[in-house]
TrEMBL record:
<dbReference type="InterPro" id="IPR001874">
    <property type="entry name" value="DHquinase_II"/>
</dbReference>
<feature type="site" description="Transition state stabilizer">
    <location>
        <position position="17"/>
    </location>
</feature>
<comment type="function">
    <text>Catalyzes a trans-dehydration via an enolate intermediate.</text>
</comment>
<dbReference type="GO" id="GO:0003855">
    <property type="term" value="F:3-dehydroquinate dehydratase activity"/>
</dbReference>
<feature type="binding site">
    <location>
        <position position="91"/>
    </location>
    <ligand>
        <name>substrate</name>
    </ligand>
</feature>
<comment type="subunit">
    <text>Homododecamer.</text>
</comment>
<dbReference type="InterPro" id="IPR036441">
    <property type="entry name" value="DHquinase_II_sf"/>
</dbReference>
<comment type="similarity">
    <text>Belongs to the type-II 3-dehydroquinase family.</text>
</comment>
<comment type="pathway">
    <text>Metabolic intermediate biosynthesis; chorismate biosynthesis; chorismate from D-erythrose 4-phosphate and phosphoenolpyruvate: step 3/7.</text>
</comment>
<dbReference type="Pfam" id="PF01220">
    <property type="entry name" value="DHquinase_II"/>
</dbReference>
<feature type="binding site">
    <location>
        <position position="78"/>
    </location>
    <ligand>
        <name>substrate</name>
    </ligand>
</feature>
<feature type="active site" description="Proton acceptor">
    <location>
        <position position="22"/>
    </location>
</feature>
<keyword id="KW-0057">Aromatic amino acid biosynthesis</keyword>
<feature type="binding site">
    <location>
        <begin position="105"/>
        <end position="106"/>
    </location>
    <ligand>
        <name>substrate</name>
    </ligand>
</feature>
<keyword id="KW-0028">Amino-acid biosynthesis</keyword>
<feature type="binding site">
    <location>
        <position position="84"/>
    </location>
    <ligand>
        <name>substrate</name>
    </ligand>
</feature>
<feature type="binding site">
    <location>
        <position position="115"/>
    </location>
    <ligand>
        <name>substrate</name>
    </ligand>
</feature>
Length: 146
């Protein structure tokens, strides 16, 4: 089965972006960590990043088609700032029925109040935050056991 790991806006800057909050690992490091975790579990990885909301919507639809054929393990999504703004991403998850893990590198609940609300959480099977980039590995380990 395939795991879609989708990353939203500004995560291409990982490693140089607010390192005190997000750490020094780059998005390519995260990709490698996800690749290793998927290999351990015999899962196929689709790892992507976009700064564009509609592109993320399209990728959820793509994952939804694989889900309909029984080939999807989960979508692990760090929607970044779109978490807190995007009804479109929520509707895409609801409309496709993909099993979603909402992931954040930082503990959003210990940060500004505008980060406390997530549109996606209502449609997520699981929500995780605050484990740093190790959260990606933990999420893949968890979905492998679903
Ligand atoms: C984030 C948290 C969001 O509030 C923020 O907008 C991000 C990254 C995280 O991984 O901690 O861009 O999703």
């Amino acid at each position: 089965k395939t795991v879609y790991v989708l990353n939203g806006p500004n995560l291409n800057l990982l490693g140089m972006r607010e390192p005190a909050i997000y750490g020094s690992a780059t998005l390519d490091d995260v990709r490698q960590l996800c690749e290793q975790a998927c290999q351990r579990h015999g899962l196929t990885l689709e790892f992507r990043q976009s700064n564009h909301e509609g592109e993320l919507v399209d990728w959820i639809h793509e994952a939804g088609r694989i889900h309909a054929q029984g080939g999807l393990a989960a979508v692990v999504m760090n929607a970044a700032a779109y978490t807190h703004t995007s009804v479109a991403l929520l509707d895409a998850v609801k409309g496709t029925g993909v099993p979603l893990v909402e992931l954040h590198i930082s503990n959003v609940h210990a940060r500004e109040s505008f980060r406390h609300h997530s549109y996606l959480a209502a449609a997520a099977r699981a929500v995780m935050c605050g484990f740093g980039v190790a959260g990606y590995r933990l999420a893949i380990d968890a979905v492998a056991a679903w």
